[in-house]
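Quick start: what a row looks like.
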Amino acid sequence: MTREEIERNTVLFLRTAGGTRPDVRVVELHGRGRVVVKDFMRSDYLFRLLVAPILVARECGALRRLKGIDGAPQFICRIDRYSFAMEDLGGVSLKTSGIELPDDFFSKLACLVREIHSRGVAHCDLRSAGNVVLRADGAPGVVDFAACVMRGSGLNPFINFLFRQFSAADDYAVILLKRKYAAGMLTDEEKRILDTPMPYERAAVWIGKSVRNLVRRLLTRKKQG
């Protein structure tokens, strides 16, 4: 897959590049159908040069771990240092106005997230409704693994501790989404979980925001909304 093919066959932009953000586009390829291409080529120069290749390598690594999981985008190929292609799950995000979800949507989403964790990947941004999609068959999908954390291959206790914490945060985020979109279906156990603050939650949120703001300030030309 070349950049010329991508430009020629783009049918939809899901997101346009700017600052630290990549272009995310749907591309229609002859014989392969629709794929999604994430591309940092038009992101700000310093960010593209110093950070984007690391993000691309990490997300490609995460998607490779998720091979065969229905509901996680399947990795197709790395195009170059700044871009890669993955399966287009289709469907609509939970942010879509007036969306109607099947009764079993969140139980299936919880199962999907547990399966993702079993492969050693924590998503880390499931609170964003835009990262969860309702697919054409009514099943959930999870997209955008840019912020993911992966379990280490060794016995590093600190890395494995972090992975467990981020996995627990994913599970908590699923319940938060359920409260937002299907509050009447919350179980007593889920209500109890929501009444209990997540350990280290405030610190993790503060660290995440601080790192993002620092990167934007140092490596981009202008503020992002």
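That is the whole record. The chain has a mean pLDDT of 89. The first strand starts at residue 10 and ends at 15.
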